[in-house]
Amino acid sequence: MTSNDINAINNVLPAGKSGNRVQWIELVKEQVKNEGLMGMTCAAYSSKRIDNIVEKTQCVCGRHVREHSYTGTPKTELANAEQWVDEHADLVPVTVFGQLTNGAQFIRCSTENNAFQKLISMIVKNVGSEPRLIVSCYGGAEYFTMKDSLEREFMNGIGQVAATKNVWILTTGLNSGVSMLIGQGVHRRKALHDNTWDPVVIGMSSWGSIAECTRVILKEQSPGFTKSSELLESDQYRYASFKALNDLPIEPSAKTVWDNEDTKTLDKNHTHFLLLDDGRLGQYLSDKPRSTFVKTACAIPGCHAVTIIVEGGANTLEVIQHDIQAKRPVVIVHGSGRLANVLGNLLKKAGKENSIERDEVIHQLQLCKKLWPASKEEQDALVGSIGKILDINKRRYLSIFQLGQDADLIHTLFQAIHKVSHLDIKVWLKLAVHWNCMDAAHTLLKREEEPRIYYPSLFSQALRENRPVFVDYFLRRYYNPLEKTIFIYSKEQPKETKSKERSSNKYDEDKEWCIHYALHFIIHKLHNFTLASTGSKKSLGCLEDLDRSYSKWIGPFVESFYFEQSSCERLWRDISSLYACSKWTTCCSNQVSNTSGTTTQQTLDTESAIDVHMAKTFRPVKNFEQQAMFRDIFFWSVIGAALIAARMAQHLSLTGNNPYTRNTYGEHRVIYEEYARACIDACYQRDKQRACQLLLREIPLYGNMTCAQVAIASEITPVISTHCFNQILDRQWYGYLDAASLTTVWAVVKFTIHLASLGLLAPRFLHYRSADTRKYKNDQDNNEQDTHSNRNFVGIDDQIKQKFSYGRRLLQFHSSPVVMISYQFLIYIWFLLVFSYWMLFHMQTPNESIGWSEIYLIIAISATLIEDIRKFAVEYRTQMLERWRLSDIWLLIIYPMPYILFYVGFGLHVNSTGNPDKFTAARIILAIDLEIWYFLSLRFVSAVKLLGPKLFMIRNMLRDLFGIMYIIFVCIAAYGVASRALVFYSNLEFTPDSIAANIFYPPYWFLYQFVDDKTNLDTIISSNSSTANEIVEAKVAHVLLAFQMLIINILILSLLIAVFNFSINAVQEKNEYFWRYQRYELICEYFEKPMFAYPPLSLVVYVWLLIGLIYRRHTRFRVLKYLYTPSLDAMWTDFEDAATYDHARDLVEKNYRWHSKSETAPPPKPLNEISAPQTQMGSSDKTVAQIDALNEKTRQLQNAFNEKTAEMQGAIAKLEAQTQQVSSNHGSRFQILSHISLSLSLSLTDYDWNGLDDEGYRAR
């Protein structure tokens, strides 16, 4: 196995030596102890010998005398020097270092004693790995400005670069200009992406150039800092003087704060600060330390460097010169301002091989007033420096990035590094995938003799990092995703390292282990990453976990993707998932190590153990081919997969731990739904019948589910609202009957007559659907039907014959759901009538004997209970569970309620002879039960389009009502308790009946305008027997009553009406969707229901089914699916692929397809064929000639148009004169014609031909 696939998966550049991270402070202390790093300070004055010096005397280093911290013997001979020399400074121990509160590391040191090598070694140990790319970003600081679009592009690009492992970003580290912009870009990238790799952004600046307040804070946060209260008396004086001179508080540790508005402070988004000190204050750092640092870092094997120039001034030329001398690439961000614009313009005009004249350089510099110096010497020096940089021999190190012309900064950066660096091809390809540089990757692969050997690792990386352009690129080249890098590497190992469990057949052996490694990749690299993105701490460990997660995400209506499961095994799995849904079963105790520190040799040593682990953990029972791999990778490719993807995205959007994740998956769900809808519409336009079959066909690749099941389970409105979905509902609703012939009123009357004749007239006088012979054109389909014999159910059977016998037609009539529900409705009405008759007229006394009505009710309700149990068992057995939801599990308590109440009430009635109490209890229970049976009859309403969605309105309004009931209860309780505390309190008893009857019950009726309290209060107030206190209490209660009526009758009821109106409108907007949803539920219920299973006749049907079960050992059920056969599946798949090909390809071409530059634009003509001035002048002269020709043609057309307009105006004048003569006889018709003619003439004469420019002429 290779460590590139299992270990260090996130590494893009090859990892250097890595290990445990070491604390920065410990690293610095070690260097200080060994005197490896030293500080530097001005030694002209000593802090111990400043007593006789004037307090405000200033040193040449920029400090006041009393600010010097040097404690050695001062160099008095240099105290009065006018210029700084290196002898002013002296080496001192490093005392300023540590870690800021935001985690950034800092150190103040000198550049002596090979300091950069030690600093780089410290950073390597601190971050845990060596650098592979140093990106220096330099340019503008104080005067830096950039356009918003360019700034956004630059921040995104630099953020992506910083997110690459083993890449170090190097800036000045100041809170201004380019360094601040880079810090913001890195911080933004890190905030929006949960990266496991922390970026390394190093700020290198001069200690003396940062703000004084910042220097004080850095000293305070150093480990050796001593507070002023702990200093000696002499030191306290010096410290207080230093603070007074700088207007700082005496105790800085308590009040000195970081000023984020100061441009000379440090940027808070950097990770390391190297503050180099030469002993002076106010001096900026030259580029020599940066160049030395980069050169030292590049001495590490495999490390390269690149510099990005953003804006910049004359000092930035030093950065470019050093990089070119060191043969390091430089990327100039053209359009960022000042120097970058000057260099960009010159390079674009000169190209790669044309020389640049001095006059052109001067011209470009003069256009930038901020860059052009005033003195002649400075001008000549600036022009000369630019000329050296743009020398033809050095121009290969310069690259330009310009917004709007180049793809993005990351592509330009990649090309610049690739031009001058020499890394292994694998490193470049992995970096190209990580930076999404398809052009560069394609160029690299074309140069290889065997490019396909790189496909497995690159394809895996593209999947992990969400690079659809690369995925499409590899699949178009017929890459097999089953071949993983780890599998290819394992085949190359010696035979003795293989597991002994492998088979002797080489082909089967490779195929089997290929599947194991592919599933390992799917589980550990794709699905665990998806779980982590939602904030879940759970992870998948084996194939059983993956299968269980699919069942949870998609629904219980799909079969296992990988294992054959019996009904008992599936039942046990569902029960376990129900009671332990928050746990993941870990079937693998020993997981494959994913640590990046594992070497290849360690991997080889554990090869045998991992092979055994793979064989036990990732061995599917079902056939796992290339299509299955595509299924697990792409859940969005075709209709069924897109619907499953929408279902999974819906689940993940509900379980995400933060709003961003939930919104992201919610947006993905909408995209998948619209894609599925568009594919369905494309199929429906090609062939309506086959498109309907696609929605109901069984898909073995996705657990034998149907597209309609996923759409219903996920409530995917765009799919359910399609014409195709409505067509399948109509076809299955009427069964074998012709739906088109039953739409008129007369057809409905005839259908009612056929129902009344028990269907005996239907075979002769009713229209049936025409036969569909296309799908049975091969005789092998008849033989393939036997493949479902062991599944104990049959699916949809379209007509395959033109003529049937009378008996067959009669059975087809009675098997139609519309017929079955019609008979069921009539029998249910009869059941309610019998129940009502028994309760009203027969159940009079406890001593009544059992009559025919009781017997009928017992048989009918028992048959209904048996039917519900059979329906539950059949739906679970056939996995038609798309209407089952975990959120509706509480309904399991409601469903058996009518049966329990009936049997309890009937039992009490039977045993109530001579016991009136039991009889009363029986009547109460049975009355409640009867009311429930009446409400259950509303389910038949869903068959009617006009009334069906109203049930959803009622359900939503009940939900709203339950929410407002608490508000109503508070209002009722508030008035009831307060008013009864003032009046009527003498009638209260501390019992539940008294409290309910006197406190809560009367105010409740205020909702319905029954206000008895007003009459009672008026009686108390007007009564002569009432005392003054009672009258006052009654008047206060009157005021409370007024407020209660205001709140209840106006505010609460208005709110309730408004909420109900909102719920009604929400359902009304989706009226078609809700009705189709209900129709699907009814069709599924009555499609699988046996014929003539109407209670109490259903008992006979059940006996017949029981006899068949005993005789044939199984019972066949009907399911709303087109069952799978190989030939049918091939036909449906071919049709789906052909019908959706255009839409799918357009989508990929638009969003994900990579187009090479040769496909989109012709290659540019080399500039060396003609000189730059000729190119510019030739193009300009040609354009001017074209404009002159167009203007001349415009003038000719205008003259011709004016002549025609004059002729038309004359004709119109004659026509108007004739119209006026005839208008008296013909009314206003000719007036309308004259107005039209006049409007036409005005519109033509008012046309602005003079304003028609060159572009407008061509467009028109």
Write the layout of secondary structure elements.
Layout: H1 24-33, E1 38-42, E2 89-93, E3 97-99, E4 105-109, H2 115-127, E5 133-139, H3 148-162, E6 167-171, H4 177-192, E7 200-206, H5 212-220, H6 233-245, H7 252-255, E8 272-276, H8 288-298, E9 304-310, H9 316-325, E10 330-334, H10 338-350, H11 358-367, H12 376-389, E11 398-402, H13 409-420, H14 425-434, H15 438-446, H16 455-464, H17 468-476, H18 485-491, H19 506-533, H20 543-554, H21 567-579, H22 600-605, H23 607-617, H24 626-633, H25 639-655, H26 659-686, H27 688-696, H28 707-714, H29 717-720, H30 723-734, H31 745-756, H32 762-765, H33 780-784, E12 793-794, H34 806-814, H35 817-842, H36 852-878, H37 891-894, H38 897-910, H39 916-936, H40 948-982, H41 992-1004, H42 1012-1022, H43 1028-1069, H44 1071-1087, H45 1098-1112, E13 1117-1118, H46 1126-1151, H47 1157-1160, H48 1172-1226, H49 1229-1245, H50 1254-1259
Parallel strand pairs: 4-8, 5-6, 5-9, 6-7, 7-8, 9-10, 10-11, 12-13
Antiparallel strand pairs: 1-2, 3-4
Domain TRPM-like: 639-714
Main location: membrane
Domain TRPM SLOG: 104-221, 259-384
Summary of the model, kept short:
It holds the Pfam family TRPM2. With 1260 residues, the protein is mainly α.
State the CATH architecture of the domain at 94-220 and 243-250 and 261-422. 3-Layer(aba) Sandwich
Mean pLDDT metric: 75
Report the biggest beta sheet as strand number plus sense, adding barrel if it closes: 9 strands, mixed
Kindly identify the CATH topology of the domain at 94-220 and 243-250 and 261-422. Rossmann fold
Q: Kindly provide the radius of gyration, computed on alpha-carbon positions and rounded to a whole number of angstroms.
A: 43 Å
Strand element count:
13
Helicity level, as a percent range? 55-70%
As a percent range, the share of strand residues is 5-15%
The CATH class of the domain at 94-220 and 243-250 and 261-422 turns out to be Alpha Beta
- What's the helix count? 50
Q: What is the structural class?
A: mainly alpha
Model regions low in confidence, pLDDT < 50 over at least 5 residues = 1-18, 228-239, 241-255, 485-507, 580-616, 775-783, 1158-1184, 1222-1260
> How are the strands of the largest sheet arranged?
3-4-8-7-6-5-9-10-11
Organism: Rotaria magnacalcarata
Region (Disordered): 1156-1178
Transmembrane segments: 818-838, 850-869, 889-908, 920-941, 961-983, 995-1011, 1039-1064, 1092-1111
GO molecular function: ligand-gated calcium channel activity
